[in-house]
Write a structure and sequence with these properties.
- Helix 15 packs antiparallel against helix 16 and helix 16 runs antiparallel to helix 18.
- The chain is built from 20 helices and 15 strands.
- The protein has 508 residues and is of the alpha/beta class.
- Helix 1 links the parallel strand 1 and strand 2.
- Bound molecules: zinc ion.
Length: 508
């Protein structure tokens, strides 16, 4: 039987910007989900990429005296470097300037025209050049952009409209049938309420834009922002080019997005797919934004959290851990430097790293590094504490509740540390009749480390690999996560190799 498919995406990131805490957060969350699904045996496909068309890119390139393509090529390099450094395991990286994508944009426009979903008209309104967006209607004679604060320009031009207004009822019916389509639920309620107020047709082309995909049937017009950008999720998996592949991957299982682009993913994207006769994705998950030490991050304050600096100080896994542990996925959060340090020292260095380090140290000291057989006590309190771990992880991860999954894992970490204190291996070691009991305790601790190594792997892949290596286990776990998390999987008789502490304590 072939493995079930799981297809997940990040948004494509705009190439006027380098990777920052926001894009890093989405991408790390998606990576943890992709790794989790792979461990569960899914044929997982994880897509990320870059959005490379538009006026902002055109202008940024102009200012630098390079072509838009050269500009995009350079910024894409920064993304590749950052994602490699952060151990991001994407299976594909799509760029909207690639022929495989541009062809699909053109095919989709033709299809929309043929099916009567486009009409030519004129768009008038206040327009923010920087944000490439018309402002909402306003009485203000000289309005400023609500997003960036720059003065808006009055703009009017011929444009093709996508008949979004036709999709109000189909969308509401779709939402009704798919109560899990937008997560978290409170954001879904906001989307539904806005759709109920009515939808207006959407201007989807520009005649003034050079750096964009020309329409096949009217080359004066070029694709404008959203149809081009959203279609990446389909073009990357064979839409209008490889039907077998598309049938295998589509509909996408999860689009991870920031809350600022939820509307486009929860309303325009499913409407567009319906117009193309394609099923909408299964889930759109909108996450919140970070502040830094209680303040909004901004260029003027120059107070950005710099992921590469955090990773340099604490390690990549600690950064990944912190971002996913600190707050429930979906909510806004505050990145506090003190909180990062505190979690690092107490949870990673203290609870987790210490458990692994002392287990392996004691294994060396008491058994010459050879894992003993738990002859008299094959199971015990740690077996009990690990029972249900898979079920709880699955429940949390199926709703992208990383913090909940990590809380559950840390319950087990603390139980294992408590077990060490209860059983006092150092005393058993002095007891001439304690040898068998000591063997059981040490086996149980090694088994707890093995289980933990698997459980943290989606969030902390390098740490997980190090634990397996220290336990003398093969790099790859071949069984599904559910089977592999079952108690008793640690073989005895093998030799462990104690390494350096996984998370050396930070002073100060
Ligand atoms: Zn603006």
């Amino acid at each position: 039987m072939s493995r079930p498919s799981y297809y997940l995406t990040t948004p494509i990131y705009y190439v006027t910007d380098r990777p920052h805490i926001g894009t890093t957060y989405t991408t790390i969350a998606a990576d943890a989900l992709a790794r989790y699904k792979r461990l569960c045996g899914y044929d997982t496909h994880f897509l990320t990429g870059t959005d490379e068309h538009g006026l902002k890119v055109q202008r940024a390139a102009q200012e630098r005296g390079v072509t838009p393509q050269a500009h995009a090529d350079e910024v894409v390099g920064h993304y590749h470097t950052a994602w490699k450094q952060l151990n991001i395991s994407h299976d594909d990286f799509i760029r909207t300037t690639e022929p495989r994508h541009e062809r699909v944009v053109q095919a989709a426009f033709q299809k929309l025209l043929d099916a009567g979903h486009l009409h030519l008209g004129e768009y008038k309104g206040w327009y923010c050049v920087s944000c490439e967006a018309f402002l909402k209607e306003t009485e203000d004679p000289s309005p400023k952009c609500p997003d960036c604060g720059r003065a808006a320009e009055w703009n009017s031009e011929a444009t093709y409209f996508f008949r979004l207004s036709r999709f109000q009822e189909p969308l509401l019916a779709f939402y009704e049938r798919n109560p899990g389509f937008v997560r978290p639920a409170y954001r879904f309620n906001e989307v539904r309420a806005r759709v109920k107020e009515g939808l207006r047709d959407l201007s989807v082309t520009r005649t003034t834009l050079e750096w964009a995909v020309p329409l096949p049937f009217d080359p004066k017009h070029r694709s404008y922002v959203w149809i081009d950008a959203l279609l990446n999720y389909a073009s990357a998996v064979g839409y209008a080019s490889d039907d077998a592949l598309f049938a295998r991957r589509w509909p996408a299982d999860a689009h991870l997005v920031g809350k600022d682009i939820l509307w486009f993913h929860a309303v325009i994207w499913p409407a567009l797919l319906m117009a193309l006769g394609v099923e909408p994705p299964k889930m759109v998950y909108a996450h919140g934004w970070w502040t830094h030490n209680g303040e909004k991050m901004s260029k003027s304050k120059n107070n950005f959290v710099r992921p590469e600096e955090v990773a340099a100080e604490y390690g990549v896994d600690a950064l990944r851990y912190f971002l996913l542990r600190e707050l429930p996925f979906g909510l806004d959060g505050d990145y506090r430097d003190a909180s990062m340090r505190q979690r690092y020292n107490s949870e990673l260095a203290g609870d987790f790293g210490n458990l692994v380090f002392r287990t392996l140290s004691m294994m060396d000291r008491y058994f010459g590094g050879v894992v003993p057989e738990p002859a008299t006590e094959p199971a015990g309190p740690l077996a009990e504490a690990s029972a249900g771990l898979y079920r709880d992880l699955e429940a949390a991860m199926s709703d992208l509740q990383y913090s909940k999954a990590l809380d559950r894992i840390w319950e087990f970490v603390r139980r294992a540390n408590q077990y060490v204190e209860e059983r006092k291996p150092w005393q058993l070691n002095k007891d001439p009749n304690g040898r068998e009991a000591l063997g059981c305790v040490m086996y149980h601790l090694a088994e707890a480390c093995r289980i933990l190594g698997l459980a943290v792997a989606p969030v902390m892949p390098a740490t997980a690999a190090s634990i397996r290596e220290q336990l003398g286990l093969p790099a790859e776990e071949t069984r599904s996560l559910q089977e592999a998390l079952a108690w008793g999987g640690m073989p005895w008789g093998g030799r462990v190799r104690r390494g350096e502490p996984l998370f050396p304590k930070k002073d100060g």
